[in-house]
Amino acid sequence: MHLSENKTKIVCTIGPASSSEDVLRELILSGMNVARLNFSHGDLEDQRKVIKRIRALSSELNRVVTILADLPGPKMRVGSFSEEPVFLKKGEKVTLTTKDVAGTESLIPVNYQRLSESIDVGKPLYLNDGFIQLECTDIQGDYVHCEVVVGGPLSSNKGLNIPGSALFIDPITGRDLEIVDFALEEGLHVFGVSFVESGEDIRKLRAYAADKGKKIFIVAKIEREAAVRNINEIIRESDGIMIARGDLGVEIPIENVPVVQKDITHKANLLSKPVITATQMLESMVENIRPTRAEATDVANAIIDGTDAVMLSAETAVGKYPVETVKMMVQIAISTEEWRSKTKEGIELMKRALRRMHLGVEDMISMQVNDALQVLEIKYVVTPTVSGKTPRNISRFRPDRWILAFSRYANTCEQLALQYAVYPTYVKDGVDDWEALATGHLKRSGIVGTGDMIILTQGQPSGRGRPGGTNLLKFIDIE
Ligand SMILES: Nc1ncnc2c1ncn2[C@@H]1O[C@H](COP(=O)(O)OP(=O)(O)OP(=O)(O)O)[C@@H](O)[C@H]1O
Ligand SMILES: CC(=O)C(=O)O
Ligand SMILES: [K+]
Ligand SMILES: [Mg+2]
């Protein structure tokens, strides 16, 4: 068993800077738990190779590495430039077109056919996560003329946002479904859904996979205003949440991003759904070996607010220092978690918030485990699990002890790699005595010895003959 020093999970976007076997190996050894493949970039054959490489390394290094397939969704993007980057200058004229042309600094192709209908004269448009701002001055057929309000460098395939506009596109596109087909064939089961608007989008994707006999884990990416508005329903319908601050910071006023992030994190925590905080976390490390103070603080605050995972995007996909960035993230997580362990920040808050909700037996079990961790010298919490629900429920208190989740379902193990403080172990064979299995495993791994205490959660079948959920706690003294 390899229990890292940090319990916050690390998601890395894989791209040209990180898709080689050597870099992938270093990323895994440095602490990457989840590899995000952004299907907006690279072709399927390239992605297939990366999937193979990650799988091979995961088994060679004996580490769970989950692959998150991030679907493109209806993201508007610019096309290709004949020479790049181009530089857009403040005050200059630039035209966007849906025609298939090679881009220049005055004429930029866009992949979105109904551009002219989605924009009005006088309205702002943003390029490259909002770094560049344009204002629409005139619309003529397929040509949208603009003036550059905030200039900067622009390269191929960067995003285009028109905040608040009607888009006429379903959040789950035909292209997304093709990618889902490909991913399911490759055995992937964790999906990121971009530009979600409502719970219906999640239900649709889940039904699509179910029709093919597959049960998938859906991470709803919150990156537009409608998603923030419908957040309760979206959290209920999805398995996890990503706060996709790149697009979100353009689609809603950027000054609202910090509080929206806090609110969503808390709501997802209450329902035990894992949260990934994404984009620009250590952005300056794309170019530099050290992050800014503000970035280090952003990572720490996301952890203190209750994120399960922190994500790297360009830093690992195209940055100069992918491995160093992961190591930096790990160091910030360790320091922040140590502080949390001392201050008990969050545990009381979570208990108080939960008491205001409608609670069940499994909630009470998770509270009692966390109470016991405050009082007794307990080394680990051991949770046999089918769906992952029990370890997730315990994890939401952000304990400073590992939750060792044992499951006979390999997919559950991979899905738990996103969950704070949960270490999943796949159990191949049928089990009739979880206590013997777990204690034997921990002893052989050398992580417990005589006199150590662990907690084991168990599910006793209910009296009515139905399998019960988790309804028992056992305190075990290791002999
Ligand atoms: N597989 C890849 N191949 C080439 N470039 C990539 C790849 N993955 C990511 N990138 C680059 O890294 C940058 C940051 O990655 P990120 O995944 O945040 O993409 P994005 O285009 O901003 O869109 P999204 O909103 O889908 O995240 C992108 O702008 C892109 O240039
Ligand atoms: C990750 C992502 O899609 C975003 O930040 O917009
Ligand atoms: K995407
Ligand atoms: Mg996005």
Notes on the structure:
The protein has 3 domains: 9-73 and 171-336, Phosphoenolpyruvate-binding domains (TIM Barrel, Alpha-Beta Barrel); 76-161, Beta Barrel (M1 Pyruvate Kinase, Domain 3), CATH 2.40.33.10; 347-477, Pyruvate kinase, C-terminal domain (Pyruvate Kinase, Chain: A, domain 1, 3-Layer(aba) Sandwich), CATH 3.40.1380.20. 37% of the residues lie in helices and 22% in strands. It has 17 helices and 22 strands. It has helices at 21-30, 44-61, 115-118, 174-185, 199-211, 225-229, 231-237, 245-251, 257-270, 293-304, 314-317, 322-343, 347-355, 361-375, 389-395, 410-416, 434-444; strands spanning 9-13, 34-38, 66-70, 76-77, 86-88, 93-97, 107-109, 124-127, 132-140, 143-150, 152-154, 159-161, 190-193, 217-222, 240-244, 275-278, 309-312, 378-384, 403-407, 422-426, 453-458, 472-477. The structure holds adenosine-5'-triphosphate (ATP), pyruvic acid, potassium ion and magnesium ion. The site of magnesium ion has 5 residues, from helix 8.
Supply the key terms:
binds magnesium ion, eight-stranded parallel barrel, Pyruvate Kinase, Chain: A, domain 1, ATP-binding, potassium ion binding, alpha/beta, 3 domains, TIM Barrel, nucleotide-binding, magnesium ion binding, Pyr_Knase, 479 residues, binds potassium ion, binds adenosine-5'-triphosphate
Rg calculated over all Cα atoms: 23 Å
General shape: elongated
CATH class of the largest domain: Alpha Beta
Number of domains: 3
The beta-strand count equals 22
Adjacency order of strands in the biggest sheet: 1-2-3-13-14-15-16-17
